[in-house]
Amino acid sequence: MVKIANIGERLIHEHEIIEKAVIEYIKMVYREYSKDPLKYEKYVNKVFDNIKEYLFPHIGFEEDEVFPLLKDSPIVGELLEEHREYLSILEKARKEEKMARKIWILEKLAEKLHEHVKKENEELLPLLQLLSKT
């Protein structure tokens, strides 16, 4: 099944992009903001832009194309729940008025996203690979 193999490759590729464009970017903004808040405050909006550009489509891809292939696996429910949690955290950060708190929330989101990507790479991808061999 070439289609499943392609989905696995796309998943890996998107995870690499999310690590760089979202997770590492949030961490950099958090680090630099801590040193010079006024200078780096403007970069917070770019964090939301990156999330909109990279993370939202990725979540859609997983929920529309990947998870249905593995709907009987318990990990799917767990990952869906995590997606909802991340969207909730993101909304909380967006509504937060205090910039220092907003950036702290985003940094915590980056940590959670990193663990989520790791979990998908270690648990979801092997299931897809197994499925592609059947």
Write up this protein:
The chain has 134 residues and is mainly α. It has one domain. It is 87% helix and 0% strand. The protein has five helices and no strands. The longest helix is centred in the N-terminal third of the chain and has 34 residues. The protein is elongated and about 55 Å long. The model has no long low-confidence stretch (mean pLDDT 92).
Describe this protein with a few key phrases.
mainly alpha, elongated, 5 helices, 134 residues
Quick recap:
The protein has helices spanning 2-35, 37-40, 44-66, 74-95, 99-132. By secondary structure, it is mainly α.
Task: Enumerate the spans where pLDDT stays under 50 for 5 or more consecutive residues.
Answer: none
Shape: elongated
> What gap, in angstroms, lies between the N and C termini?
8 Å
Relative strand content: under 5%
Query: What is the radius of gyration?
Result: 16 Å
Number of domains: 1
Q: What's the rounded overall pLDDT mean?
A: 92
Strand segment count: 0
SSE string, helix = H, strand = E? HHHHH
Broad structural category: mainly alpha
Biggest sheet details: none
Blueprint (SSEs and pairs):
Blueprint: H1 2-35, H2 37-40, H3 44-66, H4 74-95, H5 99-132
Helix pairs in contact: 1-3, 1-5, 4-5
